[in-house]
Amino acid sequence: MVVADNGEGNGEMNTIGGKKWARVAVCAAALVTPLAVSGCQSSTSASGTPVSAAGQTGTTSAASGGSSSASTSASASTSATSATSTALNGTGGTALTVSDGSSKILMNGQAVDFGTEVHDPSWSADGKRVLFIDGDGNLTAADADGSGKTVIAKNPGGGAKWSHPTWEVVASDATDQLPARAAYVFASTKGGTATLWEITADPQTGQPTGQPQKLPLSSLPGPDAKPIPQSGNVWPSASGKQGESVYEYDHGLTSDLYYRDDNLREQTSLAITNGSEPDYVVTGTSAGSGWVTEVVFVRKAGGHKHIFMESMQDSQNAVAIDLTPKATSDCTEPALSPDGSTVAFSTSSGIQTVAASGSGTPKQVTDTPGFPAYRAGS
């Protein structure tokens, strides 16, 4: 299965993609030198004794470039995750996972080897499978222990770069007699054009049931309806069981967040202005007061990138909360825990977490710079 990307965009995806694919080299270089606590905010160490990642999972990496053992002095060929043998890995019991672009994902205090580079991982709702972009640029899924790898779709090449895959599901609706649905959604960029794509899947087995197609993006008809940008769209994030997702639209010097609802009828609308790199969760079991939708995102403040939280229940009166008001360096790539209580984010010296309420002080979880994601049920 291949994707032919032929939309129009502004080239912003190149910057994001460049940062993502360069992560292995950046992290490896950073871990050769002892890391200070992030300047993102004053932080406290994660509780518990640091865990030796390489000591628990072995030292052989199947990622491009390989890795050396924990006893070997660091060098340019040493993989970033192997270097965590002497680094903090406080992921145990947190449901937080961290990928640094190597073949390993930090989780449960260990480093699990997936046998290929892992980029932008996204976990299924039950936490049993992870979706990611592999070392060949393909859309791949695997079991949580690194086994059962399946290539969902092969990258067509020709300069196409895929990123930020996410699981989109729609629960069955007995009232309207609608069956359950599922799809894989991801961003693709080629020649400076960034667009969103989907691959329909069997909601029970996860097996693809269709070819990659452009993700429909349209507003409901009406006098106030505004055209929905069809390109320049990146960083999709899905949550809940009603086909909901949030994504970033880059339009030059700034970017906005759009909300897409694919339940009974596909509709897309502007949700948050001046935001990027979104992640969000839906908590509760029913609509109305029992159903809470929260989104975290990145916004420039005080000369640095901060992490913000905003409710999508009442976008007219919503107020964004700055979760990192004392940041002295960039905070990026936020991830919300499944219960919406904790936010993890990336800094130049590792991953930190902070209460989603905005109270408390950020805590250092690992000093491995990487991409945080939460795994439900772990």
List its salient traits.
25 strands, five-stranded mixed beta sheet, mainly beta, four-stranded antiparallel beta sheet, Neuraminidase, disordered N terminus, 378 residues
Proportion of beta-strand residues: 35-45%
The CATH superfamily label reads TolB, C-terminal domain
State mean pLDDT (0 to 100 scale). Answer: 79
Oligomerization: single chain
Question: Strand pairing plus helix content: what structural class?
Answer: mainly beta
- The number of distinct helices, counting runs of at least 4 residues, comes to 3
Largest sheet features? 5 strands, mixed
CATH architecture type: 6 Propeller
- Rg over alpha carbons: 20 Å
Count of β-strands: 25
List low-pLDDT spans: 1-39, 42-86
Head-to-tail CA distance between termini? 32 Å
Please write the CATH class name: Mainly Beta
- Give the total of domains: 1
Secondary-structure element sequence? HHEHEEEEEEEEEEEEEEEEEEEEEEEE
Helix content: under 10%
Looking at the structure, the CATH topology is Neuraminidase
Question: Tell me, what's the shape?
Answer: globular
Structural summary, described in words:
By secondary structure, this protein is mostly beta strands. It has one domain (12-374): TolB, C-terminal domain (Neuraminidase, 6 Propeller), CATH 2.120.10.30. It is 7% helix and 38% strand. The chain has helices at 12-21, 23-32, 53-57; strands at 44-45, 96-99, 104-107, 110-113, 119-123, 129-133, 139-143, 150-153, 161-170, 181-190, 193-201, 213-214, 233-239, 244-250, 255-261, 267-272, 276-283, 292-301, 304-311, 321-322, 332-336, 342-347, 350-355, 363-366, 371-374. The strands form 6 sheets. The protein has a 5-stranded mixed β-sheet with strand order 1-24-23-22-21, with no helix packed on it. It is globular. The two termini are 32 Å apart.
